[in-house]
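Appendix C reproduces, verbatim, an entry submitted by the partner laboratory led by Prof. M.T., so that reviewers can inspect both the input and the predicted structure.
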Amino acid sequence: MKIVWQKREAKVRDVYETLLERRKVAYTTVMTMMRILEAKGHLKIRREEKAYVYCPTRPEGVVMRSMVREFINRVFNGSAQPMLVHLLKDRRLTEEEVEELARLIKESE
């Protein structure tokens, strides 16, 4: 999704080549993931000559919120608190990120 958001529209080949710069990935894997994202409504597809072009259906922030909510529901039974505790204990958050979270929590009260 990040690549499609950055490019505003992309063919499977575009996404595949961009990912290949970072890590080894199979073309068919990229194609499957893009089809799944299209089936879930995150991408729309149109035919252009001999290839399909994918475009995001919603802004990045909207989709990220939806995906995070889905992840929290599936993995943490709908509660964000255990996820945050896990991130803190596993030291996945920097001191600056912890301070920012504390500030955001204080502002929301």
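Residues 12 and 33 are 10 Å apart (CA to CA). Additional entries are available on request from the coordinating office.
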